Amino acid sequence: MISIYLQKESWIHRTPAGFKLLAVAIASLLLFQVKSIWIFLPCLAVVLGLYASLGREGLAQLKLLRGLTMFLVILLALHWVSGTFWEGVAIIMRLIVLFLAANLVSITTRMDDMLEVIQPLFKPLQLFGLSSRKPALGVTLVLRFAPHMLQVFSILREAYQARTGARGSWRLLAPFAIQSLRMSDNVAEALKARGGSQGLSR
Amino acid sequence: MALWPNKRRKETARVCDANASPFAVFENVGLTIGQRKILEGLTLSLDERRIGVIGLNGSGKSTFIRMLNGLRTPDTGDLKLFGAGFAEAEQELPHHVGFVFQNPDHQAIFPTVEEEIAFGLTQLGADKAESRIRALEFLERHGCAELATSPIAELSEGQKQLICILAVLVMEPRLLVLDEPMTSLDALASRRIRDKLLSLPQKIVMVSHDLSHFEGFDRILWLEDGRLRMDGNPHEVLAAYCRDIDGRSGIKMELAAL
Predict the structure, then answer these.
(1) Cβ contact (<8 Å) for B9 and A131?
(2) Could you count the other beta carbons within 10 Å of the beta carbon of residue B221?
(3) Is residue A198 in some structural domain?
(4) Model pTM?
(5) A2–B115: do the CB atoms touch at under 8 Å?
(6) CA-nearest residue of chain B to A130?
(7) Per-residue pLDDT, B140
(8) What is the predicted pLDDT for the residue at B24?
(9) Is residue A80 part of a domain?
(10) CATH value at residue B71
């Protein structure tokens, strides 16, 4: 399955993969402590500014958020019903900021650079005779294919809209799950055909 | 040193012989999934340079060729690949057998062309820097240097399929197995890919529904309902296949000039 990458010579592309992943990790830790939408608003502005710095192609990536709309609306509705509407707004803003930040790393980082950063984190597994490459490749693939999953959802939503006129429905969840499983099967088969997650050595 | 030694990490001796002739020997091989017999009683050996596989949808073609790369495991019979039993050879098969999928979108894992090519080299043990350099050299040798930094998602279908074939070839397999590689290509791209394939030194096993793609092939296998219906030279097998289709549909089918 072909993953998404934004081909460009930007400063974000040139920033080391380790720095970008660390920044997203720290931002995630900090933002999970925050509950005020007045802090999320400038964070959102910063992330949008980063996308804008990539030019028109970067801003076009924001369309991926459409795939999340239904989930966010359901989440907000649940909070509204339970009387915690503003808490719901804060949670949604946090999700959007973190999603956009993670996506930015994914579309501006080569997969092998990402793998090189992630693999050392799993080095301790080698003490137990386990592979560090296998879980690192797994994490890298998840990071890489997350934006692709949203694209898959957008395509399903469009197909549904074309036949029903409705913008989205919970009915899409089942086909989305099936397509996601098929996608993981395809990736696994493609990987196995070239020697699997462990690789080969002559 | 590992505190908990993992048996799977133990170095194992190579069991496959890359120059084995024939490279595949099927003896009464079968595979059943659920209640359905996907392949049944296949007995044949493969040795020719260019082997085509034909049959209607659901005849077992894809399963058959996936066994050559270890992507499917037979549950009955005896299958020997490159001189070794299937179970022993399975882990080693990607060394010797390159597999090209029908849909390039299902094969390419990496976002850019150069990364996709370099992955094959890292799988063989090259480090990141070396694999990048060798991938660029390889792309240049095949006239695709200008595509190196391109995102694969933005290539034409023909370019994507070519990159998928190159990503497999960079691992220098002895055998190239292709599952309907020209299905989504236009006539020109299809012709280019076919010419590329015919120019390769590797042995080829290819599935296709377009019979004209078998021009220059040495042998055709016709599968039907998981069984080998006919096996022989392309002229005879393709003519019989066309007659069979004519008989079923009542529509005349053109046999490509061979």
Answers:
(1) yes
(2) 23
(3) no
(4) 0.80
(5) no
(6) B6
(7) 94
(8) 96
(9) yes
(10) 3.40.50.300
